Amino acid sequence: MARRGSYAKGIAKREEILRAALAVVAREGYHGASVKELADEVGLSQAGLLHYFDSKDELFVEILRTRDQIDMADHVEALDGATIDEVRDGYLDIVRHNAQVPGLVELFTRLAADAADPAHPSRAFFAERSTGLRDRWAQAIADAQAEGRIRRGIDPMLAARLLQAVSDGAQMQLLVEPELDMSALIETLFDLMEPGETLGDQRAR
Description:
Layout: H1 2-32, H2 35-41, H3 46-50, H4 56-74, H5 84-99, H6 102-114, H7 121-146, H8 156-176, H9 182-192, H10 199-204
Helix pairs in contact: 1-2, 1-4, 1-6, 4-6, 5-9, 6-8, 7-8, 8-9
């Protein structure tokens, strides 16, 4: 029983660390969120902080995972079974929110680059995240096509990949162009998928 209680306390402490670390990254930015800064935030030594994680890299990956969990919890319309309008509106809400915390955007882009290394902890996180998002978006797009709300000549999974590419690319651009309206880029992509002339008709003109 004591072991079970100790385990539960460890899980709770880990959650406390991640929530506090998320706030530090949002406030101080990626460069300001050193292990020392994060440890000070929760009253631990650096060694004490890393006791709860395998490495500094894993800590930052888990911070990003916590951000995603909070985003999804606050925007249930972006979860499984959503309509295309719910996907669009919910995701745009998330994008607008994240634009207000550039430190988290920088964390995302840096870990996304690190994911190119198969041995980096972010590799598995981004692979799982990307697959989950694309599957949800592709299903919502396919459903909308069946209702005549998205042009039928677009492959749903390809459209989902384009949506992800625009979203991820916009975050990279935001780092050097803070005035960029990321949501406008994503809204434009959704607009281009609305019924009307097919892409082939447009090219033939």
